[in-house]
User: What shape does this take?
Amino acid sequence: MGFEHELIIPNEGFPFKLFQFEGKDGHYVREKHWHRSIEIFAVFEGTLAFFINEEEYPLGSGEFILLNSNEIHSISSPEANRTIVLQIPMNVLRNVETGEGLILFTHSPKRQDSKIMELIGSMYQELQERGSEYEWKVQSDFFMLVYLLLTKYRKREILPEEIRHYRKLNRLSTITGYIRENYTKELSLEMVADRFGYSPSYLSRMFRKYAQTNYKTYLQNVRIEYGFQELANTDHTIGEIALNNGFPNQKAFTREFKKKYGILPSEYRRGQKNAKD
Assistant: This one.
C-alpha cells in the first residue's frame, strides 16, 4: 500500500483489537501506513519483514515487533506464517503520567520478550475457545502486558523533533481517515485540500514530507487494499470489485493488484479455491 492512516476498532467488550494477521497465506505486502494505536506483531510460525522509517526489522518464529502510535511502517509477508496482531488504542493509556504528552516504546529486544509472546498467545487462545469466565483471563493477561510495556519497554527520553513529527501525523491522519471513508468516490487532490482548508500544493507537500508518498499513490493503495479484501472474502467478479473500489475498470485494478502483490487477481482467487478443495 501507499501511506495511509489505519482506523482501529477494538474487539467487542475489550479495550484492544486482537486478530490473526491477514497476510497469513503469504504473497502479501502492506505498504507504508500508520495509526494512532500501539501495535504488536507476534510471529509464532514463519517469518515477516518489517520496515519502520526505512529500517528493516526481520522477524522469525518467537519474535515480535512493537510499533508506536503514528509510527510509519510497512510489512512484507512473502510466505505463509502464523502471526497474531495486538492493537492498543492510545486512550487506554490516557491516565499515564507524561510530561511531553507523548508515550513511545523501544524496538530493542528485552528480557521480557518471551513473556510478551506468552501473554499474546494466551489472549488469542482464550478468545478463540471462549471457555468459562474467559473474559477475566483475557483482561488479566492484557493488563499484565500493558504493565510490562510501561515498565520495561517505554522510552523515557523523547526528542523535540519526535514530538513535532508525531503531532504532524495526527493532523494528517484526520485527512487520511476521510479518504478511507470516501475512497470509492472521486477524490481529487483539489477536492480534499479544499475540504480541509489547504491549498493543493500545501496538502501535496504534507503527504510527501510526513507520509513519504504522493497523494495519488496513497489513494490508489487505499483502493487496492480494499479491493484485495473484497477479492478474498466475496464471490464478486473482478470487474465488480474494480468498480466497487474506485477503479475505472478491471484492467486498472488488475494492473495495480499485480504491482502490489506480484500475482494477478485471478491467480490469487484460483489459489484460494485450490486451498479449500
